[in-house]
């Protein structure tokens, strides 16, 4: 069998394995899904009135803040999912199954590809569920065309692939699942210091560069532009550059660690 069909066959097998693990151990997936939903409800119903008055410059109408908040929450969902991937990869490394895979006639990269694709699918399913909750509490995107919706979904998938490869590398580099969970914390924290909850202009001057020059902020602004018709500017290109760069870095890092001789 040639290399490409072999890779596809083995990667599909590993993907099926990871999806079965997610189904048998749903607690980690549920925690990742519930966190953005709880944050969405908290910021809308507890802080939404005040935030809407500040952002909209008018009355305390929560619809203003819902529209602003939802794109950031969707990207936060994308950022939270790879943390589970890092833990899952680290568990494979520490429990010995990877050593077993090394002795089998399978494509070496299929193990990592299975983790990556499984994580991206879980992230996109989580985005759909979080989006459904957002619509249920009042989020609307009536001006977005079908092409803009497709572009928004593609953007979420591209960002998910980028951070998933970084998470795979974190899992391979971690000595145990607990360390992998801690190493993946930046992927969860970064959206909190982006433009997800408040505009960058409303932040202290010394903090604005931290929020602006990171991968989540341009992705959030691009998603807002696609769904709400706001100005995208150079955020779209920055999102693509960040995503492609992180994907290449994460893939190279993961393959380098995985191809290393076991200790």
Structural class: mainly alpha
Q: Report the major sheet.
A: none
Succession of helices and strands: HHHHHHHHHHHH
Strand content: under 5%
Number of H- or I-type helical stretches = 12
Shape: elongated
**Can you count the beta strands?**
0
Q: What is the residue-mean pLDDT, rounded to a whole number?
A: 84
Radius of gyration: 19 Å
Low-confidence stretches: none
> What is the helix fraction of residues, given as a range?
over 70%
Separation, N- and C-terminal Cα atoms: 31 Å
Secondary-structure blueprint:
Blueprint: H1 3-24, H2 26-45, H3 48-56, H4 62-95, H5 97-102, H6 109-136, H7 146-173, H8 177-183, H9 185-189, H10 208-212, H11 216-228, H12 235-259
What are the main properties of this structure?
263 residues; elongated; 77% helix
Describe this structure in words.
It is a single chain. With 263 residues, the protein is mainly α. The longest helix has 34 residues, at 62-95. The model has no long low-confidence stretch (mean pLDDT 84). It has 12 helices and no strands. The chain is elongated. The chain has helices spanning 3-24, 26-45, 48-56, 62-95, 97-102, 109-136, 146-173, 177-183, 185-189, 208-212, 216-228, 235-259.
